[in-house]
Design brief:
Blueprint lengths: L4 E6 L5 H12 L2 E4 H14 L7 H9 L3 E5 L6 E5 L2 E2 L7 H10 L3 H15 L4 E5 L2 H5 L5 E6 L2 H14 L6 H17 L12 E4 L5 H15 L1
Parallel strand pairs: 1-6, 1-7, 2-6, 7-8
Antiparallel strand pairs: 3-4, 4-5
Bound molecules: cytidine-5'-monophosphate.
Pfam family, one: Cytidylate_kin
Protein name: Cytidylate kinase
GO cellular component, one term: cytosol
Length: 224
């Protein structure tokens, strides 16, 4: 089977990551969670009290930032590491979610992470999810998907995800966070979230997880 790039973009909490992961597994491709990279950068800035609006702090933060994806020997899953430390759970916390979209507006941070994402995907055979994958990171991706879902569905799914990790968060707080991130992500100057004209839109509000995975795998097989 040939190798292609599958770019999956969309609003916060549409289930892009879990879908992309399952699509990658099915195709025998590598999954890359670009949101995890912005989240890891955010955690790094928070841990070191660095301000994204201070250019010196940004330069300092980027100089000491090393993000990687490795298989965790305990779980057998690919997880996110920040400067050698597993941060997979910590980067999903509400404190990181509340700050990440602000960090993601900073041009220098985006430049660095986009360069890393391009390196990770240069051999193709990847499924990458995010906000600007089809528009900026891989504008030539062979398959571009734009995922949407209504707010209620997204908030409920995110609440379940957090619960599974032991964090109980009020549904209204999750909704506020999703709406706020969507607003910042769609209106920022640097690589705003947009649906590019060659992307296939999939509304997952009334789709089962399996159905959305099958649909994307099918589309991928048509272009491989
Ligand atoms: O995908 P996830 O919700 O984990 O992403 C967290 C945040 O990272 C998004 O709300 C967005 O602000 C930022 N992001 C981005 N560009 C990407 C991926 C994520 O700006 N390619």
């Amino acid at each position: 089977m040939g190798k292609i790039v599958v770019a999956i973009d969309g609003y916060s909490g549409c289930g892009k990551s879990s879908t992309a992961k399952a699509v990658a597994k099915d195709l025998g491709f590598t999954y890359i969670d670009s949101g995890a990279m912005y989240r890891a950068a955010t955690l790094h800035f928070l841990n070191h009290y660095l301000s994204p609006s201070n250019p010196q702090d940004v330069a300092k933060g980027l100089k000491t930032l090393e993000i990687s994806f490795k298989i965790n020997p305990d779980t057998g899953k690919q997880e996110t590491y920040l400067n050698g430390i597993n941060v997979e759970d910590e980067i999903r916390s509400m404190s990181v979610s509340e700050k990440v979209s602000e960090i993601a507006t900073v041009k220098e941070i985006r430049k660095e992470l986009v360069a890393q994402q391009r390196r990770l995907g240069k051999s193709k055979g990847v499924v990458m999810d995010g906000r600007d994958i089809g528009s900026v990171v891989f504008p030539d991706a062979e398959l571009k998907i734009f995922m949407t879902a209504d707010l209620e569905t997204r908030a409920f799914r995110r609440q379940q995800e957090l619960l599974e990790k032991g964090e109980l968060v009020d549904l209204e707080d999750i909704k506020k966070n999703l709406v706020n991130r969507d607003r910042i992500d769609s209106s920022r100057t640097e690589s705003p979230l947009i649906k590019v004209s060659d992307a296939v839109e999939i509304d997952t509000s009334n789709l089962t997880f399996e159905a959305q995975v099958v649909q994307i795998v099918q589309l991928a097989k048509e272009v491989i």
